[in-house]
Known about the structure:
Distance between the termini of chain B: 25 Å
Number of strands of chain A: 5
Order of helices and strands of chain A: HHHHEHEHEHEHHEH
Strand content of chain A: 5-15%
Largest sheet of chain A: 5 strands, parallel
Number of strands of chain B: 0
Structural class of chain B: mainly alpha
Helix content of chain B: over 70%
Shape of chain B: globular
Oligomer: heterodimer
Largest interface: A-B, 50 and 42 residues
Number of helices of chain B: 21
Order of helices and strands of chain B: HHHHHHHHHHHHHHHHHHHHH
Largest sheet of chain B: none
Shape of chain A: elongated
Number of helices of chain A: 10
Structural class of chain A: alpha/beta
Amino acid sequence: MKQRTKFRIKDLVKRNALLFSxxxxxxxxxxxxxxxxxxxKPIDTLMRWIKGDSEPDDSDHNNVSESEEExxxxxxxxxxxxxxxxxxxxxxxxxxxxxxxxxxxADTVPAVIDPDVDARRNDPNYYxxxxxxxxxxxxxxxxxxxxxxxxxxxxxxMSVFNCFNINSSETGPNKPLLDYLKDHKFGKIYILLGINxxxxxxxxxxxxxxxxxxxxxxxxxxAIIVIQSNMNVTKTKSNNNPDTFNNNRINQLNSKLEMLAxxxxxxYINICPLFNDENGCMIDEYTGDGVHLKGKYYSIWxxxxxxxxxx
Amino acid sequence: MSFGSxxxxxxxxxxxxxxxxxxxxxxxxxxxxAASIVFYFYAVDGHYVWLLYLILSTAFNYWLGLIIGRSxxxxxxxxxxxxxxxxxxLLLIFKYxxxxxxxxxxxxxxxxxxxxxELLLPLGISYYTFKNISYLHExxxxxxxxxxxxxxxxxxxxxxxxxxxxxxxxxxxxxxxxRRSVDLSMxxxxxxxxxxxxxxxxxxxxxxxxxxxxxxxxxxxGLSTELAWIxxxxxxxxxxxxxxxxxxxxxxxxxxxxxxxxxxxDHPYMSRSISEFWRRWHMTLSEWFKENIYFxxxxxxxxxxxxxxxxxxxxxxxxxxxxxxxxxxxxxxxLFIFIAxxxxxxxxxxxxxxxISHIYTLxxxxxxxxxxxxxxxxxxxxxxxxxxxxxxxxxxxxxSTDWITTMKGMWLIFGVAILFATSYPRRLYEKVKDKKWLMxxxxxxxxxxxxxxxxxxxxxxxxxxNY
Lengths: 311, 467
């Protein structure tokens, strides 16, 4: 009888092999997932763990803190305590408030304050020693902008949280960003990051931005840094994404980034007015997805960079 | 919650399948109904009033079905019309109510300050409305007796394998399965279709979606001709695998619950005419239009003029059903033109050729999906100008290498997707599926790879922050 039962069970398992093997594999996955992180959902945890091991250059925000940090926009000119990219410790007494500055959504196009602006504007070689660092918007600039001579280190999904984990750009340089900065010298470094991480606490993003700039300054001590404001999104996009791609959040982040500028070695340029309507939202016609410029409108950005965007 | 979510695959579905299999056959429908309501509750993502519409619609049509069944013949037709109009009105209000309101308040009364309204379409309303109408029609014709049990009728209408995107199963085909048993082999069989459907969606549809996203980003007028063509072909594949994948999952889940859910696709891209394509694409929808609009209007058993009139009405209704912007109506009419031409035998010289017929069908269908996708009418001539650049000047801001950039790393998936759009992989599968030593490992790999892809796209809360 026992043998007959054994045979029946064996036959049952064989006839339903997919079902039983799937059950076993799910059980195994749950055990591994629980071992990796007992408090998370086991399958989610396991998949995230596999993803983390095999795709280190993918957007990985798993270590981002969900709680808002303090933000101090000042850079300590003597210490290099931000040499590790992950460090976000506040520095010194700081200046400026942690409260988001009021940003007038109907800003006019920024006036250039430097007396040598004409020389820079007419310099045909200005961009020969410029590095653009950024996400997909900068990828678009490299493809559709009219800027000759510049170098682009840009990759879709780049953020201030993963920029040092990316192995290669989409726009030419095929090594990690820090290695690339060690091997090449630039006179000006333009940065546009912020849209991929906009859902995280604003201060946390700003702190990471500051850490990025600190790291760049250590490797490129002679370069000036130009922080570009994050472009606004369309009204529809903003209304449909109250916790992420929302113009209030974008404006808050831009306010923090502006505080990082010292107008000597670090500049901030506000490119939002180039693309916005009277309500401070990106003009619908300029974008196909509410966030990115369409190919033909990148010339507005590059024309500005070729003139008033030079520092 | 959706079919592709991990909570559905690892929590909801196993729990429902196990409980449903273990309970007595008399209570299986109650379990399925309860599970379907729970599914709908989670799937509506906070729009709980949609559950109310579903309940009211179910109650109304159940009650009306009983009345029609008991009424004399002269009253039946009037009651049927009441039901059809009421059901259709509910659907049309949600589909077009905001458009009509905005038109009258802003355009007609020149009230520029009025806030435009936007009505969201309740989940599944297009499908359960059609199931309701089909049911009333079947009761009217005497094809089925009205459902006495509200549980049975509600189960038919809201069952979770079908509520979101069909198939639009008739009550007549559903009724014999109201009393059913479920055993391990049915669950095992259902798993094959479930995994294949899930894999098609994750591996092909979701990955190919990246191409159309890139195209939207660039702007249609900024596309190179190469990318414009890659875009429409890729969208044609993306749409197919998304819908086909979902439909296969529905079939698989149905099997696991003891149901025979009808197939919705029969390798439509292998068709040799537009008419054939639409007999093989979304088959339950075509069947619904045939049974509930085309045949009642006279079908093909009337004068030639009326036949074309009937076809026109069916394709106009098809366009209206699919969406609430004008491009859908143009899409329906575009298909009607070719179906009418084929019916008139004007296209016989093309259709009878084994090679040209395939090229013709694929060409017209791909163009039709372009019209289907572009909800802003002004985008259609723009996109056409990129597909056929010899009729216009290529803008100087077009990046002629955009297709290389966009397709980087995508060629393999694109090519394999084209292969899987043919019937050859399925034919091969049918030949080897009994070889468990081969199929079980393949299914497990497909399943876990698809789970990985699904998890990767949902783990990062800003997956759309792939900017």
